[in-house]
Amino acid sequence: MKRIETPARLITPEGKTIELASETYRQIQKLLNSGKTLDSRPRRVAEIQATYGKYAGKVSLTQALLAERRIELEREESKLKRHYD
User: Whole-angstrom Cα distance, residue 69 to residue 79?
Assistant: First the structure.
């Protein structure tokens, strides 16, 4: 009797179903069966906390990027005004 292969499905936490190719499914199985685990949640949290505030008191990169973007926009607007005046 010939075995009919059903496509493997992955269900995301949001409930979305994704069909997987046979090779992809085998790779996932191999990874899961290898016994390798990702870093534990407490370890990841500790790493985040260790770097949190690392740059406190220094120049905010976000603010620097926003200021740079503001200057770019002013330049673009002046070019457009020159072009259309």
Answer: 15
Check pLDDT > 80 for residue 57. Answer: no
Place of tokens 């949001």: 14
What is the total residue count of the chain?
Answer: 85
- The torsion defined by the Cα of 69, 70, 73 and 77, in degrees rounded to 10, comes to -170
Please state, in angstroms and rounded to a whole number, the distance separating the CA atoms of residues 45 and 39.
10
Residues 23-38 have a mean pLDDT of: 78
Tens digit of each residue's pLDDT (9 = 90 or more) over 2-27: 666 677 887 888 888 888 888 888 88
Give residue for tokens 């990841």: 44
H helices of the chain, where?
Answer: 22-33, 41-51, 61-84
